[in-house]
Structures are given as C-alpha cells and as structure tokens.
Amino acid sequence: MSKILKGIDKAIGNTQMLHLSRITKHYGVEGNIYAKLEYLNPGFSKKDRIALQMIEEAEAAGLLKKGQDVVELTSGNTGTGLALVCGVKGYHFVACMSKGNSTERARMMEALGAEVILVDQNPDSIKGQVSGADLALVEEVANKITKERGAFRADQFNLISTVNAHKLHTAEEMWDQCEGNIDVFVDFVGSGSTFQGCSLGLKDHNKDIRCYLVEPANAALYSGSKITDGAHKIQGGGYSMDLPLIDKSLIDGIIQITDQEAIETARDLAKYEGTFVGFSSGANVRAALKLLEGKEKGKNIVLLLNDSGLKYLTTDLFPEV
Asked: Residue 306 sits in a domain of what CATH number?
C-alpha cells in the first residue's frame, strides 16, 4: 500500500509512460513512441516539476524566505505549478500572464490561491497567439512587481533549477521506464528547460541518443528561418527568442510543426490513445511521427505529453459541440 502524502507537492513527478502504439499504427509508421503522461501531475502539466524544483532550491540556498512573495511570468502551466507548490508551502504567489493565453489557466491559478495579473498583448498580436513581443510586456510587469515587493523571482527562463528538475528526475524516469531502450528524444521548445535537462540526463546514460528540438513553423528561430510575425497557435513556447538555458551543442536536429499538424495530432491522440492533451503535446508527437517516417524509422522515441486538453477548451484546439 502506498504511503499517505503530506502535501500535494509530493504528488509531483513519477508520471507513467505510455506506448503510443495506436497512433503509430494510424499514421502507418515503423517504430515506437513512448510518452510521459505529464498531465497526470496535480497541476495537469510538466511545469509542476520545475515549480517544485525552483522553490526547493531557492529555499535551500536561502534565496526564498518565509513571508516573501513569489513572482513569475507564465503562459499558465508554470503558474499553476507555482500556485499549488507555494500554496502548500505558505508563500503568496503572483502570476503575470498575457491575455493571449487561454482563460482556463488564469481561473485555475486563482482557484489555487494565486494573485493573477493579466497583461495586454502587443497591439499587433492575435488573441490566442502569444509572441515574443507579448512575452516581453509580461516580463516588464513581472520585474516591476518583483522589485516593488522584494519578492523572489521564480525565473523559469534563467534558473538552472528548472534544468535540474528534468535532468535529475524526468530523464531518469524515462531511462528506467524504457529500461534504457531509447534512441531519440524530441521536445517542443518553451523555456528550454525540458529539452536541456532531458538531453543532458539521457546523454549521460548514452551519448548516442539523438535529441531533436521542435519549433512552430512560423517561429522557427533555431532552424535559422527568417521570422516575420512569429504568430502561431501552439501555446507555451515558440517565442522566437534565444533561450539562455539551451546548449545548442545538444541539438541533433530540428523539426518544424505547423499549427494544423499540432492540432490534428492532438485530436488524434484523444481519439486513438485516450490522451486528452494540448497543442504542444500534439506538436511533440507529430515530430516523432515525422522522424519515424524518415531518418529515425524503426527507432524508439521518447517525449512528454506536456499538459491537459482541459486547459484549451476555449481555444479552437477541440471543436465545439
């Protein structure tokens, strides 16, 4: 019998791995895709992992003290993770989020006790499509509040603790669950911590594991494409900006995914695998399917299903009934 948890933070991590055999059969590709079910974390996303790691490392280093506020910019998932972690640890959390993100996320953070500050998008931006320019506006607000309140900034784009969350935990879980039978890792680029941490952890076990970065076709900065407006629907990443956490030497290849490909694959995952997930999960799986059609035919690919489709009910990811 499992032990009783002393806090919801103890439920973070150790998510199960699912063999996506039905989706590979549907697309007619040869090989295996193994997916970490990150939406089974208590905040329904992989970002619970970095939220816990940032807070615990900050506490251990004396950077976060009792009574301090915690502030971070978020597309919603990191904020949800921080809201629940800060809630059980006794910190007040302030989430700064662009109005371009789905409203479900703001409502969930507020329900978990967070103070949510919504920031207007850039005048040229499209609602539901958060660009690097939009993120810069949220960054300004987050910095201002951090300074005014003497808060701890849980900076997911810069803190090495976010990389540690995936190197020390996610990568190790994947390696153990697959018994080391891993050829390829793919990851949609958000803050960069998942790609960096998992790539480091997996390559520590086997340097020949190939790690592919996944980008929106309209914001393919790492592919060397010329960025025009950078608009896309894959929320939580693809901000057309160099990410401080990513070591480019770890990138063995880059795959571009269109909005429609991400949407179609997310819908197929729900239909064929019973996994109700968001845009970026669809992008990850579509990238893996493309690899199995080509240069990685017959190989074993690992990836994360990043978050729950419940966070996108007000978007066009799933059709209205």
From this structure: 3.40.50.1100
The residue whose two tokens read 């998992």 is 198
Q: What is the pLDDT, as a whole number, of residue 2?
A: 65
Q: How many CB atoms lie within 10 A of CB 76?
A: 27
Length of the chain in residues, anyone? 321
Q: How many domains does the chain have?
A: 2
Is the pLDDT at 1 greater than 60? The verdict is no
The one catalytic residue in 75, 193, 280, 281 is 280
Residue 241 has what pLDDT? 85
Whole-number Å distance between alpha carbons of 41 and 8: 10
Whether 307 contacts 41, CB under 8 Å: no
* Residue 120 sits in the same domain as residue 262: no
On whether residue 319 sits in a domain, the answer given is no
21 is catalytic: no
Q: Are 85 and 218 contained in the same domain?
A: no
- Judge if 124 and 247 occupy the same domain: no
Per annotation, catalytic residue among 47, 167, 233, 290: 47
Q: What is the pLDDT of residues 261-312, one digit of tens each?
A: 999 999 999 999 999 999 999 999 999 999 999 999 999 999 999 999 999 9
Cβ-in-10-Å burial (0-12, 13-18, 19+) of 208 comes to exposed
46 among known catalytic residues: no
Which pair of tokens denotes residue 209? Answer: 């594991």
The pair phi, psi for residue 109, each rounded to 5°, is -60, -45
